[in-house]
Amino acid sequence: MLDRRSFLSGAAMTMAARHLSIGCTEAAGREPRQLAAFGRATEWLNSPRLGSEQLLGKVVLVDFWTYTCINWLRTLPYVRAWSEKYKPGLVVIGVHTPEFPFEHDLDNVRRAVRQMRIDYAVAVDNDYAIWRAFDNQYWPALYVLDARGRVRHQHFGEGEYEQSERMIQRLLAEAGAPATDQAIVRVNPGGVEAQADWGNLKSPENYLGYQRTERFASPGGVDRDRGHRYAAPARLALNQWALAGDWTISGQAIRSTAPGARLVNRFHARDLHLVMGPPRRDSPVRFRVSIDGRPPGPAHGADVDEGGNGTLVEQRLYQLLRQPAPVADRQFEVEFLDAGAEAFAFTFG
Going from the N-terminus, what domains does the chain have, and what CATH number goes with each? Predict the structure, then answer.
């Protein structure tokens, strides 16, 4: 299953993340299958098409990503910094392999690349050809290939940035690249790229479509694939969620079908995000967020104001809350003032 949650959920994700230094997986003289797979990319952004001819002789960092993944977003500042510091000896390729249907849309990916200030090469992997060539299973996943195209290092998830950078330095030295400053890069990310508050993170990522959701608490459960009027309990247990008002729950998402539909979740984390969007870019959806029944005030996220007001204008991850200390169990609610909102997953930080 292509499920980042199975590997990268909550605070346990940092402990679970691992790195491996491994040898060549191809016989001598054969084109490495990982490099060959780049020829099957759907599209290239920020770069002409790259393959063995352009990449052999270079150290290559391959970063699997999908633009709504909060775990990947928190690794992005390091990948950007490595791309800048170690070029031209290091070639960075971000392989965008989509999770949700809207992430297959090239315009959405182009917009994400622009908004996230990604200037290194991006291979759009809508058919999972590169993903399969690397036997990959996770977002984010980092692979470092030596000048012969061999995978020499891999790391899944967030963290262990120094180990990955030291391997980049080692392989560049092996390849005879010009010497660079050997100090480890330092980043100071903000917004959704800021590192999670792991000590206060007690809520795992949760999908909202019925295929993968957990802890749904509206009475009567899910009425699949058709409009239904839901009710929310007065109080939820930690990490339960519920709907109120008119919704349709499909396999991958929930969709509000009338104004005033509400989504409620009880959580424990500094940050709360929702992957969501309007039905079309020309049909924005207004929404209002509250925490424990009140406007968020200083706890508002980047995509809402202090009164909790925001607007869905595109399909992406929205940061709705960033709480100042102290962090405690809280009840979150978002009310969609217009019909048509689609929501896919909660993530926390």
Answer: 4-193 (3.40.30.10), 199-348 (2.60.120.260)
